[in-house]
Design brief:
single chain, mainly beta, Immunoglobulin-like, Jelly Rolls, 2 domains, five-stranded mixed beta sheet, 20 strands, signal, Ig_E-set, IPT/TIG domain-containing protein, Ig-like_fold
């Protein structure tokens, strides 16, 4: 009787051991396949696509995404723009801000997953806010940006032939920037993806700005005081 009980007890313990081993070996794989990716950090969180604007060229910002569960068939997007992955270490992804990127979200999705358009959520998807700044990449060579709010005006003094950097707030509707100055001015206006349009040696230009974005721009003028109305 003792031998029978011992045999039964040993079988139960042995079976339990096999069950634990099997469960522990399967759980990590199941988690890897079914769990969504997780983003813990994006460095830097402000950058620019490549800029090649007449007399200035700046490379696309390199971005490192850290987290877990990235998988192997990984897709990185800046909103709806797919970015090339230069290196995937499983917990770190290396990429660059692609042409056409604009402020919104950077997302990571894995095989079988997808992110909702211009969102940081979806199936097997993770995201974080990302900001496009066309001016920061220059080291802010023209000093701090001056903010011009919609429906307001500024009086700005230029010393010699000087360039100043500006940005609007996010415009609720399309508006015109009207510049009044005693000298001719040159204005460089960036779109949301940092492509520049230049208005060279203009007299009192009126420049259209789009709705829904904060527009960055430069003004170069001689030793004059200029008025800006938006």
């Amino acid at each position: 009787m003792r031998r029978i009980l011992y045999t039964i007890g040993f079988s139960l313990v042995l079976g339990s051991s096999f069950s634990c081993i099997s469960s522990s070996s399967e759980d990590p794989l199941a988690a890897l396949l079914t769990s969504p990716p997780v983003i813990s950090s994006v460095t830097p969180q402000i950058g620019t696509p490549a800029q090649n604007n007449l007399n200035a060229f700046y490379s696309a910002t390199e971005v490192v995404i850290k987290g877990e569960n990235f998988g192997v068939d990984t897709v990185v997007r800046f909103n709806d723009i797919v970015a090339a992955i230069t290196l995937n270490l499983g917990t770190e992804l290396y990429t660059k801000v692609p042409d056409g990127a604009y402020s919104g979200f950077i997302t990571v999705s894995k095989s079988g997953g997808s992110c909702l358009p211009n969102s940081k959520t979806g199936v097997n998807c993770a995201g974080m806010e990302y900001f496009i700044d066309c001016y920061a990449v220059t080291g802010k060579q023209y000093g701090p940006e001056i903010e011009l709010k919609q429906g307001s005006s500024l009086s700005v003094e230029f010393d010699g032939q000087e360039t100043k950097a500006f940005h609007t707030d996010t415009l609720l509707a399309s508006r015109n920037l009207t510049i009044g100055c005693e000298s001719t001015v040159t204005v460089r206006v960036f779109d949301r993806s940092c492509k520049a349009t230049d208005y060279v040696l203009q007299n009192d230009p009126i420049i259209p700005f789009p709705a829904g974005v904060a527009t960055q721009f430069y003004i170069t003028a001689d030793s004059k005081t200029c008025s800006l109305v938006l």
